[in-house]
Design goal:
- With 220 residues, the chain is an alpha+beta fold.
- The chain folds into two domains: 57 residues; 161 residues.
- The chain has one helix and ten strands, in the order αββββββββββ.
- The longest helix is centred in the first third of the chain and has 55 residues.
- The chain starts with a helix and ends with a strand.
Amino acid sequence: MKINHVKKVLLVAVVLGVLVSFAGCDLAMGDAFIEEGASRSMNVANDDEVSVKQSNKQKTFTATVNLYQDYEHVVTLDMGNSNHHKTVEETLYSYQYGPFGGPIQSDWDLLDGKNVVMSNGTNYNLDPVTGEIAGSNHSEISIVDENGEVILTFDANGVLSGSLLGADITMNWVAKQNDLKIKARGKVTGTFVWAVFNYETMALEYILPNGTFTLTGTYN
């Protein structure tokens, strides 16, 4: 009888040992699952944060376009008896017109292949003898799609300096409120030409006013 009692005690001890062992394993596995789940949650949170940062990151771009003046519709005011003038209405286009104009070439797909309609207001001095010109310039640059719809507009302000044979224009621009909710800003530079020098007549010869402009900046 004592031997059987000892066997029963040993059996109970073995069973308890096995149960404790399994319980220990379950707890360890449970902790591992919790740690793995927490790690996955942190990774997902980090991925979302990276995605948001990437979407907000500013992208740089460059665009070039040739514009010509609608010279038949230019309204210029002579500011008194001086060389000071003010252009209150002037429009430039990039639509192809003979050798002039042409669509935008850009690494920003929103601009690439589109056209430009640019409205100018210029306050300048022009020397009638030398043809030297200098002043300030405000422009509203509209990007137009193939249907003629304006998809984006820039406000630009800056200066021009040179002569009728070629004046450098430098402006800072910022995107106006638009349906695309795009934030963009940068610089526009170019050289605008009103005339060429005829060496046979030794005089200025006026041409269709035109210039090639480079637009650089960032957007998101």
